[in-house]
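Exercise: predict the structure of this protein bound to fructose -6-phosphate.
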Amino acid sequence: MCGIFGYVGTRKDAGALVVEGLKNLEYRGYDSWGVACSIGDGFLVKKDIGKISEVNGLQFYEECSLAVAHTRWATHGGVTKENAHPHLSCDKTIAVIHNGIIENFGEIRDELKKKGHTFVSETDTEVIPHLIEEELKTAEDFAAAVRKACLRFEGRFAILALHTASHSLVAARTGSPLIVGVGKDGYYVASDFPAFLKHTKTVQYIDNGEMLVTDGNSIIFSDLATGVEKPKREIEINWSIEQAEKGDFEHFMLKEIMDQKESVARAVNQDEEQIMTLAKAIHDAKGTFLVGCGTAAKACMAAEYFFSVIAEKHVNFAPASEFKLYHHFLKPESLLIVVSQSGETADVLDAMRVAKLKGAKVLAIVNVEGSTIAREADYTLRINAGPERAVASTKALTGQLAVLLLIAYALAGKLRQGKTLLLETSSQIAEMLNPRYVTRLKELAEKIKNDENLYIIGKSWNYPMAMESAIKIQEVSYIHAEGFAGGELKHGPIALIEQDTPCIALVGNDEVTTDVITNSIELKARGAFMIGVAPKKHEVFAEWIKVPDAGPAQAIVNIIPIQVLAYFLAVKRGKNPDMPRNLAKSVTVK
Ligand code: F6R
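Solution:
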């Protein structure tokens, strides 16, 4: 959700610096933006609705070494220039940006109004600079005033507060992510590290319930509630700038789809001893649960089949947002496996808390190193996909599937066999994603781009992939798409099929192939334009998209052409696939 980026240090171009860094957080999704630079006794503020990358001539010529920038995802108050952050105190010496929700902002605002504070927006955020301003009248310094204000706020938030007089930046966190970049020339504080990757790869993490204060020369972390100082380690991150950039690709989504030529192999490259330890933990657990949201949830659903077919192990899937209703089934001996690209998804964090309250252990499968989920879990496996910037998750999904499949093989005592299968699959993906193949999918997108409905069917692990196909197509092309288990068609959805309705069948070469082909024949008989994603051609397919025969890794290869198709459907319909409407990359609010 909202992107946050602040800087304090010796550089004199802080305004331009935070604007540039903020553009690297655009993938988080937003509807307005704003920047504040400390100049003289106050702040120079520029803000507007729309995309910051589309603003020409947004320059900060003024010398400034304390600045903050923000992309806003509207929650309280509409999408207006006035509601965009930063918000200022009455005396204009305090600027604040915020991610999250201040639930009790109404009562605080009423109280502050009575004390003479004037509000210019409809946001919950605006109470923050005003309350800090009020607290500063009695607090010993700016950091103490921010602490006192934060202790009044209810809800989860991440805040950056800047103060001209003390030339300092204070950050506080109770829910949404914040990371500090430690540079030679100052400190960078952001909601994600692409904002400052160009300047430093040394980071420090601020945890929930903590705050920091920095004047650019030094930094002090402390407990938000008690004020007790907390020592922090410096950690080097290993993602490169190139990995986080588009290169020659027109969009991140296409680049990240293409990254799958290598990223699946990177996901498989896990410490074997650790995988075996985790497999044993799953084996010994009294109840294993798999949770995630959206695309990651579809990886969890596919894993139910992996565990069942490969390891004959029963695990329970639930969308993370539903998981707390399962708490009756949790025991101290239970295991929760959480899957998340960002490692920051609020519903997943909540599910982890539910499990921890019952004493259960948590295994996290994440992409973002050092994310909250990674740090709060008992065990962590990284999928090593590299930065995923497009809102639509692609390479993270195939990495998640690869890791889950590997664990299923380890559980069955066949880790080597699983690894060999996945490495072979990785080479097959590299061959498959050739320019001819991509052009073929582009042509298919041209044929169906004007259709308003699209249905996808699959069976076994291809059933969650049918649902995932629908997510991918919906979110970037805005075509109405739905994924079903092939066998469910005749229990309802087949009524939707008309002459030439495009339908996609995700097929493997396994015990359920005949069933899915039969379902495809049923669809064709009702007029469907059948597109088969399958290792073998079949006469029922009006269009055949060939995929390698990948055995139990079929889910991984079958979803990739759909990702490419979704990408081209978006582009051909004039949509920006990297920034779908109403969506955010990292959903840190519930
Ligand atoms: C869809 C998509 C989302 C995410 C979901 C979970 O393409 O990206 O459905 O999968 O919001 O996000 P993470 O994996 O970061 O927990």
